[in-house]
Amino acid sequence: MQKIYNRIEEIKGNVVTVRADGIKYGELAEITSAHGKSLAEVILLYEDKVSLQVFAGGRGVSTGDEVRFLSRPMMVSFSDNLLGRIFNGRGNPRDNGPELTENLIEIGGPSVNPAKRIIPRNMIRTGIPMIDVFNSLVESQKLPIFSISGEPYNELLARIAMQAEVDLIILGGCGLKYDDYLFFKERLEQGGSLSRAIFFVHTASDPVVECLMVPDICLAVAEKFALKGKKVLVLISDMTNFSDAMKEIAITMDQVPSNRGYPGDLYSKLAARYEKAVDFEGQGSITILAVTTMPGDDVTHPVPDNTGYITEGQFYLRNGRIEPFGSLSRLKQLVNGKTRDDHRPLMDGMIKLYASFKETLDKKSMGFRMSDWDEKLLKYGELFEKELMALSVNIPLEKALDKGWEILAACFTPEETGMRTGLTDQYWPKQ
Amino acid sequence: MATTGRVVGVNGNLVTVEFDGNVLLNEVAYVILDEKRLKSEVIRIKGNRAEMQVFEIIKGVGVGDSVEFTGNLLSVVVGPGLLGQIFDGLQNPLPQLAEKCGFFLDRGVYLDPISNETRWIFSPAAKTGDIVVRGQTLGSVPEGIFEHKIMVPFDLYGTYKVRSIVSKGEYNVKQQIAELEDENGDLIPVSMIFQWPVKKAINVYKERMKPVEPLVTQIRIIDTLFPVAAGGTYCIPGPFGAGKTVLQQLTSRYADVDIVIIAACGERAGEVVDTLKEFPELTDPRTGKSLMERTVIICNTSSMPVAAREASVYTGVTIAEYYRQMGLKVLLLADSTSRWAQAMREMSGRLEEIPGEEAFPAYLESVIAAFYERAGIVKNIDGSIGSVTIGGTVSPAGGNFEEPVTQATLKVVGAFHGLSRERSDARRYPAIHPLESWSKYSGSVNVEKAEYARQVLFRSEEVSQMMKVVGEEGTSIDDFINYLKGEFLDSVYLQQNAFDQVDASTTKDRQKYVFDKLLLILLAELKLTHKDEARSYFNQMRQKFLDWNGSHIDSDEFKKGETEIMDMLASKSMESVEEINEKLNSLV
Ligand SMILES: Nc1ncnc2c1ncn2[C@@H]1O[C@H](COP(=O)(O)OP(=O)(O)OP(=O)(O)O)[C@@H](O)[C@H]1O
Ligand SMILES: [Mg+2]
C-alpha cells in the first residue's frame, strides 16, 4: 500500500514539507516533478507534517508535485553482481549496466558490539614505503588522508586501491570532480582491478543531498561482503564534501551551528561512518581510507579536527609526499613487530635522522656554516626524499627496508646512525 | 495504571509524546515499535506533551506510535557482580548481549545488568530486631578480593526494624535476604540488589572530608608535580593524538586504588577492546589477581546512540559511589567528557533552547560542575572511609583550551594536566605540559622540592626562548647549563616510557628516592667550561639515568646505576656530594 500526496506545503532549500499520516522516520518517498523523479527521505515528523530532504534538490519542485511514500527506508541492492559496477550516490547505475534491484539491504545499520571486536593484527601492504615502513596500514584501521586541493590524493588512493592486498575495493566519491571520477575508472581498468571494485560516485555536479548517502551505501555494502569473509578496503574522496553537505542541510533546517557553520553533531555523524571499520572474527574486515581536504590548509578546521579525534591516526599528504612528521598510524605497533627485526629500529632511526636533517636545513637557510655532519645530513635528507619518500617509489616492504640501509650506508658510518651494534652488524650493506 | 501516550513528533532522536496521566521529569519510557521497546528518557514536559530522548536508533518510529511510561527515573542496578563487567551506557552487559544478538547491537534488547545465575555466599551482619537505616550493613558477600557489603537500599528513607534475615548460605541476587518493617508496620522485602537513579548523587555518608591524601598514579610528572588526591578531581585536555587515552589506560592499570571504573564515552571502540582483551591477562601487583577483577567498563563508544552516551558518565559515577559506600577507594576515568558535553549540545539544539557559546547549552557549566562534585572522600555511616576520584579527558575543538568545555571543567577540578601538541609531536610522553599544568593538591614528594624542580624548568625555558633569538653563541655558559638542566629533568624524570616494563610505573617510594638524586644534579654547581663539554656531560648523564630508570629497584643494576651517576656528578661538581645534600635538605 503506497500513500500518494499531491500538495507540498513548503519548499525550502532541499527540504519539502507535506501533510501525511502514518509516515515513519527515515522512510523514503518518490517525488515526481516536471524534471523527473527524485527520492526523498523523511527527516522530521510533527503531527501530520512530514519534512523530507529531496535527493535531487528542491530546485524545480512545485507545490503540486506528486509525493509517493514507499514504506521503506533507503536501501541498496547487495550481491556479487555489484562487482565491477559503477553507481551514483543513490545507487543507480552510472555505467551502462542494468539496474540492480535484488536483495535490498538497509543502509546506516546498527553499530558493532564492542565486546565482539578483536585487536587488529594484519598489515595491509601497499608498496608505498612511507606507509609500509613508517606508518603501516592495518586491516580494519580507519585513516584519513589530510591534504589540500592540488595534492595528488586521488592518485594516492588509486595506487593503494590497485596494490593493496585486499579482496574488494569500494570507492565512494563525495563531490568528486568528473575528471577525477574518470581518472579512477581508467586507472582501475588499466590495472585490471575494476572487476574487484565497486564505485558509488557522487560527482560535484550531482545534487548535494545524494552526497550524503555515499558513505552509508559504501559501508553497508562493505559490511555485507565482510560478513561473507571478504577483506574490504573502502576508499572515500572527499569527506570534507560530505561534511559540507551535512552543513547545508543543517542550515536549511535552521539548526544552530556549533563551529564555523557546521552542526553540533558533526563528530557523531563522522564517527558513525568511520567506526564501521572492523575486523569480524572468523569473517572478513573493513578498512577505511578517506581523503579529508583541509580548507585553508588548516588542520584545526572543524572537519579535519573532528576527524582526527575519530580516526586511528592520519596520513598528511603535502608537497606530493606523505609527510613523516604529523603522519601517524596509531595501530602500526600491532603489526610492525612481526615483519623483520630491523623494521622498528630502522623506522625510528631514519625518522630521527630526518628530523636532524630538517634542523640542518633550518640552520642552512639562516646562513649558518655547515659542518661535516651537516653535509652528511643534507645528503641523507635528499636521498631519503628521493628514494623512499617520493610517491613514485613502488617497492615491497622488505626492499624498502634494504633501501633504507643503503641510504644510511651511503651517508653515514654505522655508529653515526645511533642504532644498536647488533643490528648494523647484521644489516649494514657490504661494499 | 501506568501512564501511556502516543508519539506526535520525531526530530532525530528527540520524540514528542502526548500523554494522559502524570509524567515525571527524567522518567524512563518506552516507545513501542512493533515488537521492540525503545528506551527513552523524559527531558522536558509542557502541558500534556513530553519531550523524550530516545536511547536507540530512531528509524521507523512514526506519529501515532504508542509510548509506555514506567514511573521510574533512569537508574542503575547495584549489588554484587558489577566488578569485571562491561556495560553500555545504560548498563546493558555487552558480552551477554553479543551472545544473544551476535556482531551487532540490536536495538530494544535489555538484559539484566547483574545476572541472577551466580550464587553468592551471604553472611548476615544484622539480626532480627535490629533497627536499621538506609546504607546500613545487613550482611556481606565476597566479591573477588573485596568484602561486598549488602546494605539497606539507599532509597529506604526513615528507620526500619529487621523482621527477618536469612542465615549464612548461598543466594542469588534477586532472592530475598531480609525483610524490613517500616514505621507503619509495612513489610519490605530486600534482596542483594536495588536500583538508584543515575543523576542523583548517593549521599548516604556521615560527612564529606577534604581530599588530602595523594592518590598515587605511578606517573612521575603527575605524582611529583601535579598530584591527584583521593576523592579529588582532575582533567586532561589535549588535542587529538596527544596521549589522553594512553594516559588514562596507564592510570587504570597502575593507580593505587581499589576499584577503577572506566567510562569510555563517545570515543573509539577499538581502544576499549585493548582494555577488554588485556586486563584479564594482566595481574594487579597489589592483589595478584587479574586487573579485570577490580575494573568496571562502561562503554558507549562514538557510533553508539548519542543519548545513551550522555547517560554513560552518570552510570559510571553512580557505580563508583556505590562502591565508595563500602569504604573503598574508587577511581572513575571518563574519556572523553567533551563527547558527553556534545551529546548535551545535540539534545539542547533539538529542544531549541537558546544556545550559548559554540552552541553549547547555557547550563553546560553547572552540569559539568555537578558531575565533578560527585567525587569526594567521605566517612560512611559505619565509620569506614571511601573515596571517588574523577579524572576526565577533554577534547577541545582545534586543540584550543579557550573553549566552553575545557573552561567550564577548569573552574571545578583540583588538578589540570594539559597535554601539548609540541610535546607529543616531539614524542615527549606523557605530553603533560610542565609549565602550564597545575594542581591544588599536595603530592607525596615534598612541596618545596617540587617547586625547585619547577623553577629549574622555568629557567630552562627562558634560556631556550632566548637562544632562539641570540643563538647558542650568544648564550653564557651558566645560562646554557641551566637550559641543559631543565632538558635533563624533562627527559629523565618527566618523560616516562609507557612501553618499558619497569619505567612504565614508578612507585611512590621510588619516585621520592630518584627525585632526590635528580635534585642533587640540578642543585650542583658544575665545572663545565665549554658548551660542547656541557652538552656531552648531560648526554652521558641522561643515558645513565635512563638506564637506571629501566632497572628494578631491588636489583644490583639499580645500585650500580646509582653509583655511576653519583660518581659522574662528583667528577664535575664544585662541591662535594655531602655539601649538595645539605643544599637539598635546606630546601625544605
Ligand atoms: N605515553 C606514551 N608513550 C608512548 N606513546 C604514546 C604515549 N601516549 C601517546 N602515545 C602515542 O600517541 C598515540 C595517540 O595517543 P592517544 O590515543 O592516547 O591520544 P588521545 O589524546 O587520546 O587522542 P584522541 O583525542 O584522538 O583520542 C598513541 O597511539 C601512541 O602511539
Ligand atoms: Mg583518545
Account of the 3D structure:
The complex is a heterodimer of chains A (431) and B (588). By secondary structure, chain A is α/β, with parallel strands linked by helices. Chain A contains eleven helices and 23 strands. Chain A has three domains: 3-73, Thrombin, subunit H, CATH 2.40.10.170; 76-332, 3-Layer(aba) Sandwich (Rossmann fold), CATH 3.40.50; 343-427, no CATH class. Helix content of chain A is 33%, strand content 26%. In chain A, strands 9, 13, 14, 15, 16, 19, 20, 21, 22 and 23 form a ten-stranded mixed sheet that branches. In chain A, helix 4 crosses helix 5. With 588 residues, chain B is of the alpha+beta class. Chain B folds into four domains: 4-73, Thrombin, subunit H (Beta Barrel), CATH 2.40.10; 82-108 and 211-420, P-loop containing nucleotide triphosphate hydrolases (Rossmann fold, 3-Layer(aba) Sandwich), CATH 3.40.50.300; 120-192, Beta Barrel (OB fold (Dihydrolipoamide Acetyltransferase, E2P)), CATH 2.40.50.100; 447-587, Bovine Mitochondrial F1-ATPase, ATP Synthase Beta Chain, Chain D, domain3. In chain B, 33% of the residues lie in helices and 25% in strands. In chain B, a hairpin with a 2-residue loop joins strand 4 (36-46) and strand 5. In chain B, helix 10 (447-470) crosses helix 11 (477-494), helix 11 runs parallel beside helix 13 (531-549) and helix 12 crosses helix 15 (577-587). In chain B, 51% of the residues are buried. At the A-B interface, strand 5, strand 17, helix 6 and helix 7 of A face strand 1, helix 1, helix 4 and helix 6 of B. Strand 5 (36-46) of chain A pairs antiparallel with strand 1 (4-11) of chain B. The complex binds adenosine-5'-triphosphate and magnesium ion. Residues 244-245, 267, 335 of chain B line the site of magnesium ion (MG). Adenosine-5'-triphosphate binds at residues 238, 240-246, 267, 395, 429-430, 498 of chain B.
